[in-house]
Sequence to fold (317 residues):
Amino acid sequence: MNSITASARSAIHAPTSARSRLRMPATRTWLAAGQWLVTLLLCAFLIVPVVMSIMAGLTVNYFKGLSSGLTLRWLVEVWAQYHGSVWLSLEVAAATLLITLLTGVPAGYVLARSKTRLSRIVEECLVLPIALPGLASALALLVVYGGFTRFRMSAAFIVVGHVVFTLPFMVRAVAAICASSDLRTLEEGAASLGANFFQRFVTIVLPNARPGIVAGALAVLTLSIGEFNLTWMLHTPDTKTLPVGLADTYASLRIEIGSAYTILFFIMTMPLLVAMQWLGVDATGQRGAAKKRGGVAATKSASMPASTPSPESITTP
Fold:
């Protein structure tokens, strides 16, 4: 009798449970569709103005739109007037990158290895320029070094400002990757084999820190090329970089020339962003850790004896 009652109850509840199982995927589908819709709308909100600005730099007359025709006249005019700013921006970015590599990589390594309170204080001091507005940092540099006329009028003054602003990005990227990898064990093993500090740094630290170095280098280049606030305070008529020239074109010239300047700026920065994705930069080491876990799992499964039955193949009589 009890078995008959149980079977009747299961028959009554079976359609309900089946309907609930059918409803859940539909709910998940609607949620996923909503998330995709919000993401696409946000992307359109950010990308459409950039596309419209680029189109403005390629049209004969912005106010008439595409009906006026397409032209490269504004790009040619911008290059003729501001090619000096382009080369100066590249030179400043290259000098900034070189200095941050020489100082930021060792600093990031030391901060990752050291666990003292002093190292944390130094790290906070290095990050301080990011917390301050660029105008404040530029004003501090002018107050301290503005009296040195030749230095103040040279591009080296802008390089110093860019180094102060971008150095934390290099230090934090290198420190993050050095802290995530077990460099101390590798260095101790190399030291036991007779390697000195320079040999350990070149053959162990630098190869393992490469993702952080690449991430920091690309961040330094993009930030240096696009930095405006600090550069606007430090520049002179002879040391005008790309962002300052872009502001001048939008303020004093036709909107088509300003938009063409935006295209030129876009052409310079996009390859760096694409390179970051193409190189698969992983400064935090999360993807490397995931691959390592996947490799360990594959090794374990491959090392299992072939005669060991899987749990699914075990049946009870």
